[in-house]
Specification:
Layout lengths: L2 H13 L2 H8 L3 H15 L4 E3 L4 E3 L1 H24 L9 E6 L1 H18 L4 E6 L2 H9 L5 E4 L8 E9 L1 E6 L2 H9 L11 E5 L4 H12 L8 E6 L2 H9 L4 E5 L4 H5 L3 E5 L7 E8 L6 H19 L1
Parallel strand pairs: 3-4, 3-5, 8-9, 8-10
Antiparallel strand pairs: 1-2, 5-12, 6-12, 7-10, 7-11
Helix pairs in contact: 1-2, 1-3, 1-4, 2-3, 5-11
């Protein structure tokens, strides 16, 4: 077993493709296949389950991935510490982010980070909050962004932004009248078709908690659809399929254009925390430390000013 084999294994595991791994490592696909075959022979284990579209890790493969990822990360840290990489080579930070931070908060961070460290590369994987935390726990990514704090060991959360939720409706005469007649109440939501984010979403969990605090239990809501894609939800609302509860950030442009209306949730506090999360049991790379520093520069300093 050697580092080249483990590096090939990690690339195939993350890209779910031998051809993608070959492209990432500037090798031929037969070379990647040979590395994986050698590992499987040496470990006497089947590492991947193959089908016509992609490859996925077997149970043995999942165990090996956790060890191999640590080894590859340690190799990168050694190279960074002693500056052994070739001049012009670029580091890559892997980031997992839930929808709101990925779409509305990270762009400003990425711009500032690129200005300060133009030689760094960033890979972002968007998923729901629970998956983000799982990727941090398993050390699949360097840092994560999530709107939900899940009590998982080894995770350290750094809140950096307050996100307010709102009831979002079409901009029709009926809802304009509701906004005038009931500016501080949303009991009428019980009579509406509701489109919610998917299970596991931090937005959905927070929405249900805030509604409960406002005297509206989740079980009494008429939820007609659970959708993971936020843009699909907003389009469905605009077309009159129902109403939704999302971050105020998600509806800023549409409200300015007169397409949607937003209603505050009564009794809601200053907002939920959006958190940066990382695994405290692993040494962060220099690149990841720089990235976290930029997040603090962009958002935490603003909250003080």
């Amino acid at each position: 077993m050697n580092l080249k084999q483990l590096e090939a294994f990690v690339q195939v595991a993350e890209g779910k493709s031998f051809s993608k791994a070959a492209k990432e490592l500037f090798l031929t696909q037969p070379t990647i296949s040979a590395h994986i075959a050698s590992l499987e022979r040496e470990l006497n284990a089947r590492l991947f389950v193959r089908n016509t579209k992609e490859v996925s890790l077997s149970e043995d493969g999942k165990d090996l991935y956790r060890y191999a990822k640590q080894i590859i990360d340690l190799q990168k840290q050694i190279e960074e510490r002693f500056e052994t990489e070739e001049e012009g080579s670029r580091h890559c930070i892997t980031i997992a982010a839930s929808t709101i931070p990925a779409q509305y908060l990270l762009p400003r961070v990425l711009k500032r980070f690129n200005e300060k460290y133009p030689d760094e590369q960033i890979k972002i994987m968007e998923s729901d909050s629970s998956k983000v935390v799982s990727q941090i726990v398993d050390h699949i990514v360097d840092v994560g962004f999530t709107g939900t704090v899940l009590e998982k060991k080894h995770c350290r959360y750094l809140p950096f932004y307050k996100d307010k939720l709102a009831v979002i409706t079409p901009n029709t005469e009926r809802y304009r009248r509701l906004k005038e007649e009931s500016p501080d109440g949303i009991d009428w939501i019980l009579e509406e078709h509701l489109i919610m984010r998917e299970e596991g979403s931090g937005t959905r969990k927070e929405a249900e908690e805030q509604l409960k605090a406002a005297g509206i239990p989740a079980e009494k809501l008429d939820v007609i659809a659970s959708i993971g894609n936020q843009e699909t939800i907003k389009k469905s609302v605009r077309q009159g399929m129902g109403i939704t509860i999302l971050s105020e950030l998600a509806a800023v442009d549409e409200e300015a254009d007169g397409e949607l209306l937003t209603f505050p949730i009564p009794g809601a506090d200053a907002g939920r925390d959006i958190n940066l999360v990382y695994n405290k049991n692993y040494q962060l790379s220099r690149s990841a430390e720089r990235f976290i520093k930029v997040v603090k520069e962009v958002y935490l300093r603003e909250s003080v000013n």
